[in-house]
Amino acid sequence: MKLKQRDSWLCNAKALLILCVVFGHALERELGWSTAAEALYRMSYLFHMPLFAFLSGMGAQTPERCLRQAGRMLRLYLPAQGICVLAALLWRPELAAGLLVTPVWILWYPLSLALWCLLAAGAGRLAGSCGRTDIVRTALFLLALLLGLAAGGWDAVGRAWSLSRTLVFFPCFLAGQLWGWRGMAALARSWRLRLALLLLSLPALCACWRALAEVEVRFLYQADSYAALSLPLARGLALRLAYYLAAAALSAVFLSLCPRGRVFFTPLGNETLPVFLCHPVFTGLLRCLPYPVALAVPVSALCAVAAAGAIYLAARWSQPLVRYRRPL
Fold first, then answer.
1. DSSP letter at 217?
2. d(CA 64, CA 70)
3. pLDDT digit string (tens) for 205-263?
4. Torsion from C-alpha of 17, 262, 317, 279, nearest 10 degrees
5. How far lies 124's CA from each of 129, 130, 311, in Å?
6. Which long-range contacts (CB under 8 A, 24 or more apart) does 304-307 make?
7. How does residue 284 score in pLDDT terms, banded at 50, 70 and 90?
8. Nearest 5 degrees, angle CA 13-CA 278-CA 60?
9. First vs last Cα of the chain: how many Å apart?
10. Is 123 exposed, middle or buried (0-12, 13-18, 19+ CB in 10 A)?
11. Is the pLDDT reported for residue 328 higher than 50?
12. For the chain, percent of residues with pLDDT exceeding 70
């Protein structure tokens, strides 16, 4: 199928982002040993999850599409999580109760995506029932942003039901749904806008990077409360705000530099979910390979590309769960 340039751009962005995900997990073995690996790991976690949420929001433009996507993700999450619960009952019964409410590692994303879609469907219907829709949508986005900041102040909001990540990344999803297509169209039309965005984003990114440089890596996962990370409330709020700004700046840089036409890795952008779900096998095997710390970055990069390529080839005939279409 021939893709339009805009669709190719989005597929290219998703393909490069999934490589960032696999690359980041491949680097985990060397955290604490390699400063280069840790810097790249931090850089990846500053933007790849918020930008994936943003792009996912672009694929759910109406309440009806949101509900369909929520159903797809729940049909994926519930059986997969159920299998993990059954396995725990057989081999580690003490873990089974926790798994009833806490998603297993990568399964947080399907659950969060389902919850984002349900929240966005409700927000869309609320905005549609009110006059001055743009004002209502902006107000809903600001409310979501405030909830994302405040979520870290509630000890009960953490990994259970993927609630912390759902609240923290929901503003990114909502921004993609509300303004993603218009923003991407504006970027595509004007090289001056892309250049201005780059020039404005880099100083903001540098300032936020300095603010987040000393924070524990676990903070970047946005899966725990501020108290669980031993952060005072005021500092936690400031750091999460810096995280939002850094994610926005780095995402703008990433999208501005991302190829817009069809390239050899464009088709991978339509198969990111299989890569995401299957890549832990490859990153687990990587941890068993002997190689010197000095080669951590190139070996991890090579393995990330090989893993994504192998999973894509295995899944290329399957129907992708998310396709981008022109908004109605």
1. G
2. 10
3. 888 888 888 888 999 999 999 999 999 999 999 999 999 999 998 998 899 889 988 89
4. -20
5. 9, 10, 35
6. 304/19, 304/22, 304/23, 304/26, 305/19, 306/282, 307/22, 307/26, 307/275, 307/279, 307/282, 307/283
7. confident
8. 45
9. 21
10. buried
11. no
12. 94
Burial class for 260, CB neighbours closer than 10 Å (0-12, 13-18, 19+): middle
Residue 54 Cα to chain centre, angstroms: 8
> CA 114 → CA 71, 82, 202, 255, distances in Å?
7, 17, 33, 25
User: Which of these, 157, 163, 144, 166, lies nearest to 226 by C-alpha position?
Assistant: 157
Please state which of the ranges 38-47, 285-294, 295-304 shows the lowest mean pLDDT. 285-294
Residues 6 or more apart in contact with residue 165 via CB below 8 angstroms? 49, 108, 112, 221, 222, 223
Could you tell me which residues come within 8 angstroms of residue 272 by beta carbon, excluding any fewer than 6 positions away? 14, 15, 17, 18
- Condensed to tens digits (0 to 9), the pLDDT of residues 310-320 reads 888 887 765 54
Q: Please give the radius of gyration of the chain, using alpha carbons only, rounded to the nearest integer.
A: 20
State which amino acid sits at residue 152. Answer: G
Q: 328 in helix, strand or coil?
A: coil
The alpha carbon of 98 is separated from its chain's Cα centroid by a whole number of angstroms, namely 24
pTM: 0.90
Tens of pLDDT, residues 91-136: 888 888 888 889 988 899 999 999 999 999 988 887 777 766 778 8
Please say whether the beta carbons of 283 and 22 come within 8 A: yes
DSSP run (H or E) holding 232: none
